[in-house]
Amino acid sequence: MSQTIDGESVVFEAKLDARGAAKSVQMERYGNEGRKDWGTTPYGFTVEAEKAFGDYTIPTKFRGGWWFGTSRFVEGDASDYEIVDARYG
What we know:
- The protein is mainly beta.
- The protein has one domain (15-82).
- Helices cover 0% and strands 60% of the residues.
- The protein has strands spanning 2-5, 8-16, 22-31, 39-53, 56-66, 79-82.
């Protein structure tokens, strides 16, 4: 899949389970984390939980970061993200 962000096409891979729920997302992200220069670097996260808000169920807990999906990814250095509320209008 791809998404255009600021005029750039960003290709990403989303892994889904049998019922269509997101399990992980991986992409190349521009940055200099763990590099000597700036460039595209693997980035991604796994989905650890989901929650219903009204009629919608969305991923709410994520864990990942730079070099996701490679041997350079260090689980102990991963970032944790959590969505605690969502409203749809």
